[in-house]
Design a protein that fits this description.
Elements (H helix, E strand, L loop, with lengths): L1 H26 L4 E16 L5 E15 L17 H4 L8 H29 L2 E4 L8 E4 L4 H4 L7 E5 L2 E2 L3 H9 L5 E8 L2 E8 L1 E6 L5 E6 L2 E3 L4 E4 L3 H28 L10 H13 L2 H19 L7 H14 L5 H31 L1
Antiparallel strand pairs: 1-2, 3-12, 4-11, 5-6, 5-7, 7-8, 9-10
Helix pairs in contact: 1-3, 1-7, 3-6, 3-8, 3-9, 6-8, 7-8
Length: about 375
């Protein structure tokens, strides 16, 4: 399953990402010299009538579109300061700034569209989970043993209305507001007998293990709601798309929170994963069936968009940062500055890849 799941996951996502760049560039008349799935030495390829080399390369951890006028696959401008008119025609660097920005942004945008299409499809085909008793959804029916909420003074029959000032609509909102904050003190607002109050609750830090033995650390309040049962209501395309957007925004918010916690030391760097962990998870999700795997594809697609939009030179977000600087300065960043930035960005990306791969190997051995 790992051998099948990994290429089945990354192959289409990388191809769609790069097709986003390619199609928008082609629309603007920018010529692509190479379209590669993978990095490094070419394994197989074909050149089309426009002169684009479509190829598979040896290292299947990404891809690129190399445009006319690029020095390398990272779209660093070619060294010649004043190319001939024939060289400028159809070159990426000769395109207007706004067109270059759209070409670069099109890759991550395509990944976001894939995610939204999958989530919207789920909401249309399967439906939105709706509590059978929505009015009792956040009413506490019982406490788990050693419940932090009970220790803080909450009682059976209390209705939780907000966490840290964020209004709770249903139990899923409550889970999202707590699970990312193990060991953190949260302000829990509640209703009791027509009155409201707020108490500080230290979320329990619990290690949760799935059926494959993967361990994650989550926060819990230790409460069981009175409304325990869900029905599923299928949504029309407009409602499904709106819900897909909201769900995706919430996933991105959780990504940002998780990264921030790792940078601040609240979470261990061991929670970072690389290609080996992705391959492991892809095989596991594939073994659970097509729906689980497609949901995992949507999450990874959103992750790819998020990572690529980080303002690191060499990634799409780094290019967009340079274009923003160019728009403000009304001239491109100097070649020396770009060279230093891209070398630094490449070094950071390589170090991160080595680190997460080492993490993956340690996790497998452990």
């Amino acid at each position: 399953m790992y051998i099948i799941g990994f290429p089945l996951l990354l192959g289409p996502l990388i191809t769609l990402h790069e097709l986003g760049h390619y199609l928008v560039a082609r629309y603007f008349g920018v010529q692509a010299e190479a379209f590669s799935i993978g990095f490094g030495k070419e394994i197989a390829g074909v050149t089309d009538r426009r002169g684009t080399r479509w190829k598979l390369s040896a290292l299947p951890l990404g891809g690129y579109v190399q445009f006319k006028g690029d020095m390398n696959p990272a779209s660093v401008p070619a060294a010649s300061a004043r190319p001939a008119a024939a060289e400028r025609d159809g070159s990426f660097q000769n395109a207007p700034l706004w067109q270059r920005a759209l070409i670069v942004f099109a890759g991550p945008a395509t990944n976001v569209l894939v995610t939204l299409a999958i989530f919207a499809g789920f909401f249309m085909a399967i439906g939105k989970p709706v509590p059978a008793a929505p009015e009792r959804q956040l009413t506490i029916a019982a406490f788990s043993a050693g419940s932090p909420a009970q220790k803080a003074g909450l009682k059976v029959g209390d209705r939780i209305v907000a966490i840290d000032g964020r209004t709770m609509g249903d139990f899923r909102d409550l889970q999202d507001a707590v699970m990312l904050y193990p060991g953190k003190q949260l302000a829990v607002s509640f209703e009791r007998g027509g009155r409201t109050g707020t108490v500080p609750v230290m979320a329990a830090s619990v290690e949760q293990k799935d059926r494959f033995g993967n361990v994650s650390r989550i926060g819990l309040l230790g409460v069981r709601p009175a409304g325990v049962a869900f029905a599923f209501e299928r949504q029309n395309p407009v409602e499904a798309t709106t819900m897909a957007v909201r769900y995706s925004v919430n996933v991105v918010r959780m990504m940002i929170t998780g990264v921030g916690q790792i940078l601040s030391g609240e979470r261990s760097v061991d929670e970072l994963g690389g290609p080996i962990k992705i391959a492991k998870y892809s095989g596991e999700q594939l073994s659970l069936g097509p729906l689980a795997f497609i949901n995992f594809v949507a999450l990874i697609s959103l992750n790819l968009a998020f990572i690529n939009l980080l303002p690191i030179p060499g990634l799409d977000g780094g290019h967009l940062a340079f274009y923003a600087a160019e728009a403000v300065r009304r001239k491109p960043v100097g070649p020396r500055g770009m060279e230093v930035a891209y070398r630094t960005g490449l070094a950071l990306v390589l170090m991160l890849m080595l680190f997460v791969t080492f993490n993956d190997l340690v996790g497998l051995v452990g």
